[in-house]
Automatic annotation (TrEMBL), chain A:
Electron transfer flavoprotein alpha/beta-subunit N-terminal domain residues: 21-217
GO MF annotation: an example: electron transfer activity
Keywords: Electron transport, Transport
Protein name as catalogued: Electron transfer flavoprotein alpha/beta-subunit
InterPro entries per record: ETF_a/b_N, ETF_b, ETF_beta_N, Rossmann-like_a/b/a_fold
Top-level taxon of the source organism: Archaea
Record organism: Natrinema pallidum DSM 3751
Pfam family, one: ETF
CDD domains: ETF_beta
Tagged with keyword Acetylation: no
Keyword Transmembrane: no
Membership in a protein family: Belongs to the ETF beta-subunit/FixA family.
SMART domains cross-referenced by the UniProt entry: ETF
From TrEMBL, chain B:
Electron transfer flavoprotein alpha/beta-subunit N-terminal domain: residues covered: 4-185
Protein name: Electron transfer flavoprotein subunit alpha
GO biological process, alphabetically ordered: fatty acid beta-oxidation using acyl-CoA dehydrogenase
Any one GO molecular function term: flavin adenine dinucleotide binding
Family according to the record: Belongs to the ETF alpha-subunit/FixB family.
Domain of life: Archaea
InterPro entries: DHS-like_NAD/FAD-binding_dom, ETF_a/b_N, ETF_a/FixB, ETF_alpha_N, ETF_asu_C, Rossmann-like_a/b/a_fold
Keyword list, A-Z: Flavoprotein, Transport
Amino acid sequence: MKILVTVKEVATVEDEFEIEGTEIADQYLGADLNEWDDYAIEEAVQLQEDGIADEVVTVTIGPEDCEQTVRQALAKGADRAVRVWDDALEDVDLLDVNAKTEILSAVIEAEDPDLVLSGVQAGDDSFGATGVSVAENLGFQWGAVVNHLEHDLENGLASVRRELEGGVEELTDIELPAVLTIQTGINEPRYASLRGIRQAQQKPLDVQTLADIGVDESAIETELELTDMYEPESESDATFWEGSPDETASELGELLRDKGVAQ
Amino acid sequence: MTDVLAVADHRRGELRDVSYESITAGRQLADETGGDLHIAVISGTVDDFADKLNRDGVDAIHTVSHGEEFNHDVYSQAITQLYDELAPQYVLTPNSVNGLDYAPAIANELDLPVVTDTIDLDNDGETLVATREMYGGKVETTTELEGDAVITIRGAEWPAAEGTGDATIEAFDADIDEDAIGSTVNGFEEVGGGDVDISEADLLVSVGRGIEEEENLDLIRDLADALGATLSSSRPIVDNGWLPKNRQVGQSGKVVTPDVYIAIGISGAVQHVAGMKGSDTIVAINTDPNAPIMDIADYAIVDDLFDVVPELIDEFDG
């Protein structure tokens, strides 16, 4: 079977930063593979190693700069990558769920995978909606927030556990083809080996424009407008103990003794 | 007029709190223009649920009796049909694990924009202003949109609706296509049992990402031993396999209310805070004075845990 994994390079922010308009100033931003996608990649690669998946393909929406992140997925074992980018995407402030759905759906239709793995959410904008939206759009089945996937997919069924709130898991069977959104903790993502990193440089990474995948530019127009960004006001009314570590530790020690929870 | 259709959340026979909170959020939105607030309650003991949901501010409750537990295909079909029938401007769903399993699908099906995980909503009759967080809570943003939308709301951001309402309660005869149901829920399992119940502890020493490496956990174990405390953690520690699931505090783990909760190297993501904000006294040890954990801490030490914790161990062992 063939597995497609959606991979996003997310922006990371330093502890101290400044906001310019509706964006965080460039100098405070870093870039990383989305944490949830790392688990999705690992799950796909494990299915490949178990002989269940024949091919693992990643798909990314992003500019050339994010190829280093895409190569991380290839270094961990994905076979090849598709990256969609277009001049029309350069100036978009907010690529909303519907726009991502149109783009990813077009690639998935062309690739025709049996299973699509997507991170539950992205660490930057945290919409948590694209995977399920894509599934509905394609007529695929889906499951959101999956933290366990049984390796018995040959029968056209994914047996999963969905991580509900409060330490409860839902045991669900989902027909293929399906999109599963993958929760952190489902596996232990590997570090890429040196050999993997070398091999990744040779693996195919196809770059496609909106026209290449047959998506009209009007599909990426959004009805959402990001109008403000600000640091939340600190609501802290904590007592900040100051001083050297032995001074602050003894303040805490005194509190614990006062409360009668430690002697 | 801004009519709102809010969808209730329930599991294993119990309505979840966010169902009552979405009444408050939905009422606020509908009030801006004198619209109606409709509640949909789907599957399970819907008549019993409808009685409980009949609180101040609800105009109409629509029950869809089909199956016992949540199934996203049943929800999607019922809600899109209710949307066609009622023509609300906003469909409001909880930003729960189940909410995220159908809200994006109905948005796609109805060709509506979707805004998830909102923490505040404002509406002047034309424009909706949705407040959300980005970058793990480091910033808040406002997103504006006009027209119909699907919106998910974060739990515990709105107060629960109270009182007794005088809503009409009607069974909605949804036409559920069984052939379109592609997933089957086979059951539930409680996880996180085992040797220790962290929700019973009076003093919790809780460790997060700031510990950096698995071998550093020994330092926190030593502290727990010195204090006679119980060891717990935030999600990443369990995700990494460094501690078992029964040690996890938070939305997907345990809710704890100890006398004292010491958060060590825990930034305080909203999912974590949901599990420990009821603690009597919260102490945070963190290098970042702006970490969200500081918002709910009663006492804080802004310093390196690797400097402070050994001193604290000495304080009790020495």
